[in-house]
Amino acid sequence: MSDDIPFQRDFSAPPEQIGELSPLIRRMVADNPGPYTYTGTCTYIVGRGQVAVIDPGPDDQAHIDSLLAALDGETISHILLTHTHRDHSPGAALLQAACGAPTYAHGPHPVFETGGPQLDHGGDRSFRPDRLLADGERLEGPGWTLEALHTPGHLANHLCFALPAEQALFTGDHVMGWSTSVVAPPEGNMGDYFTALERLLARGDKVYWPAHGGPIHNTKQYVRALIAHRMMRERAILARLEAGDRRITEMVAAIYQGLDPRLNFAAGLSVQGHLEHLIAQGKVRRAPDDADLYFLN
């Protein structure tokens, strides 16, 4: 169940149209809707005249052309990436080819040694940032400053970007208003995700601008609900193990009743992420001869 989280699903911004959100923020939604992207990837423009673009989106020339047309007469000075999934970063190469601005990110896509299945959105392994951003590093333009906040969990190189002038935080896929974030091994790490959520609670951001869906204004309440939901999910997994479930497919069937079948695979990876977190806490163990067989300690 996810009704413990105050989701906001009334988002209806039309794709490929510029939207004025605040004195410093504009948004254009890419036309890439789907079960993992909601209505599409939100590309944000920060500033006026000389601007930063956050998450240029997928490999979609039409989206980049729409963005460039909307910014005609302005200069793009920074291209920022929250992370390197294919619904966020491939558009950076197309945008850079047109405007010449450097790209900024926490790093290239992490390399994981695994032969297992991956989520549909996958990793953009071709992307290499022109400049690596460290946690706390600041970028500036006329009338605006953005600060990088390292928030691993959904992906090891995930960044949020704070806009102190508006007490706003661009949260990428770390916090979204329409759904929980997928935290799927090997790319996702549930322990890191919990830690990064706790870090947000210590901040004073008044509004979150996620990469999919609309803004979140009740920021602390929302993050507390996300943490509580994840803790509830781990209790449910422990209960299924106590009831005799041993495999992830069994747990998904019992815990995620009524789930959109398209999301069963992602739910299984999320359960795996929770199981690995529970193993790290010493509460669960994996069978030495079967990687998909789990037991309570």
How is this structure best described in words?
The protein is an alpha/beta fold. The protein has two domains: 199 residues, 4-Layer Sandwich (Metallo-beta-lactamase, Chain A); 69 residues, Winged helix-like DNA-binding domain superfamily/Winged helix DNA-binding domain (Arc Repressor Mutant, subunit A, Orthogonal Bundle), CATH 1.10.10.10. It is 27% helix and 20% strand. It contains six helices and 14 strands. A hairpin with a 4-residue loop joins strand 10 and strand 11. Helix 3 runs antiparallel to helix 4, helix 4 packs across helix 6 and helix 5 crosses helix 6.
What CATH architecture of the largest domain do you see? 4-Layer Sandwich
Quaternary class:
single chain
Low-pLDDT regions:
113-117
Overall form: elongated
Percent helix, as a range, is 25-40%
CATH superfamily of the largest domain: Ribonuclease Z/Hydroxyacylglutathione hydrolase-like
Could you write a compact summary of the structure shown?
The chain has 297 residues and is an alpha/beta fold. 27% of the residues lie in helices and 20% in strands. It has 2 domains: 19-217, Ribonuclease Z/Hydroxyacylglutathione hydrolase-like (Metallo-beta-lactamase, Chain A, 4-Layer Sandwich), CATH 3.60.15; 228-296, Orthogonal Bundle (Arc Repressor Mutant, subunit A), CATH 1.10.10.10.
Secondary structure layout plus pairing:
Elements: E1 19-20, E2 25-29, E3 42-46, E4 50-54, H1 61-70, E5 75-80, H2 91-99, E6 103-105, E7 131-132, E8 138-141, E9 144-150, E10 159-163, E11 168-172, H3 190-201, E12 207-210, H4 219-243, H5 248-255, H6 264-280, E13 284-286, E14 294-296
Parallel strand pairs: 4-5, 5-6, 6-7, 11-12
Antiparallel strand pairs: 1-2, 2-3, 3-4, 8-9, 9-10, 10-11, 13-14
Helix pairs in contact: 1-2, 3-4, 4-6, 5-6
